[in-house]
Amino acid sequence: MSTYRNLGLFLALSALWGSAFVAIKPGLSAFPPVLFAALRYDVAGVVTLGYAALRADRWCPRGRDEWATVAVGAVPLIAAVTGFQFLEEVVDGWTAAGFCCLFGGFVLIERRALGREIPRLRAAIAGSDE
């Protein structure tokens, strides 16, 4: 993809996502919040499924192996998103910083930390009491 095409797609996506927030206020006056969120997800799902049906030769998984692949990808993602929505109320800043450092350590385990990364790591572990 060219740089201009990527920039155009990025701007289009930004405009779509940004305009969605404009519609939330009148939508919430017409529907209860949970129903409104469900309707938004339903519309997004139908649009995505329609796009997949038009663009792909085979858009639905077939066979036990393909459904298992979908489940292995989708179930942890859904559980993580739902869990983080409810757990953020009880997770303090240190815990979040600690997990960031832990996961960063796994990603960067094959190389040495640079001198400027050590103070940042210490600051993240120290957290903030604000």
UniProtKB/TrEMBL annotation:
<dbReference type="GO" id="GO:0016020">
    <property type="term" value="C:membrane"/>
</dbReference>
<feature type="transmembrane region" description="Helical">
    <location>
        <begin position="33"/>
        <end position="54"/>
    </location>
</feature>
<keyword id="KW-1133">Transmembrane helix</keyword>
<feature type="transmembrane region" description="Helical">
    <location>
        <begin position="93"/>
        <end position="110"/>
    </location>
</feature>
<protein>
    <recommendedName>
        <fullName>EamA family transporter</fullName>
    </recommendedName>
</protein>
<dbReference type="InterPro" id="IPR050638">
    <property type="entry name" value="AA-Vitamin_Transporters"/>
</dbReference>
<keyword id="KW-0812">Transmembrane</keyword>
<keyword id="KW-0472">Membrane</keyword>
<feature type="transmembrane region" description="Helical">
    <location>
        <begin position="66"/>
        <end position="87"/>
    </location>
</feature>
